[in-house]
Design brief:
The complex is a heterodimer. Chain A contains 11 helices and no strands. Chain A is mainly α. In chain A, helix 2 runs antiparallel to helix 8, helix 3 packs across helix 4 and helix 9 packs across helix 10. In chain B, helix 1 crosses helix 3. The chains are: A mainly alpha, B alpha+beta.
Chain lengths: 186, 254
Amino acid sequence: MLEPADRQRFERMVMPHHDAAFNLARWLLRSRADAEDVTQEAMVRAFRFIAGFHGVDARAWLLQIVRNACYTWLEKNRRADLTTEFDETIHLQPHFPATQSPEAAAVASNERERLMKALETLPARSREVLVLRELEGCSYKEIATITSIPIGTVMSTLARARDGLKRALNPSTGRDAGGKEVHRDV
Amino acid sequence: MTCEVSQALLHGYLDGELDPLRAEEFERHLESCSPCITQLEEQESLRASLRAAKLYERAPAGLASKIERQIANTKSESDYQWSWVPIFRWIAASAVIVLLLVVTYFGAGRLLSGRSGVEQAALAEVIDAHIRSLQPGHLTDVTSTDQHTVKPWFDGKLNYVPPVRDFAENGFPLVGGRLDVLNGRSVAVLVYGRRKHFINVFVWPESPNESANSAIGTRNGYQWNYSRAHGMEFCAISDVSATDLHDLSELLQE
């Protein structure tokens, strides 16, 4: 029978990546609660299609499914997220008072908060590439597989995303480096 | 200030995704480009703070078991496939049988009566080519009863190697070979003798979408015999009898 073998394969190859699935969903949806629902739904979906998976990179395969589930969810529940472009004047200044805490721990947690918010202001397409690269440690090739964009585009999207992040962190300074580009085609 | 040329390269370099050649090129560029050095340093420190911030968010503790529970009650697609397999098998098997019957009936019928558009056109071309070859001086490009002379003659003239054999012992002496054009492409033609008649055998590589393995017929008073063997398709045409053509066809398929 095929069924027990499939369940084993899923346990062995896909389940270990459920953290990666959640992390991507959390950053795409910008909410832990929504990410939990969508991750669960996507994992079950992955299970149903496990028989059709013959590749070696189960993580990329799973993340592809998770990503699709996230975009479907956003389209249904938060369309604006997909169309809103990066706009530092709306998103940023109010969130980021100068971090001058004397306590190192406080600085660190503040810094984390600041980075988190900055990452969340990026458009979804930039954010996902950055999350896959910097948090998930994916290669360009894996990112290309997961997001279905060419490798060259992965590289330029990353360049834009990082510039965007830099500007989000230093709203006053970073307008020079490719700033116009971010507005034009993200 | 930014260096326009190297923006994307810089990120590829930062991520270790450039091939060695381009990485080296970029390093050489770095030596003379201070904006790129600054940019690279900034990106490295941005990455360091991203790492330090530990933004990776693990799944909540209960999620894995929630997923496990739901999966326990879920069928995978292969489960569905499994339950449907016997039914699909029967449907597929019946479909194949029906298809075979249809192909045998219509395919052979079409070839024999020459009713299908494509085959009719091909057959007409074969017959025209055959008639043309019987004009003085048109029969062969290379005239030799020696297969070792005829075969090398085709070298470089076609993108395949037609099997050239002399069947003189069986009453079909090799006369020679020539190039002809069928369906807009060059094909090899082997010319055999049969008493005082000539037989043209058109040879071209097998195409996978042909249905029939062999077929025979008469058209404009000419006998034709189509067969496939050794990865080639053969169409023999002549004014000899169908039996003679059949014999030659058997030899070709050996």
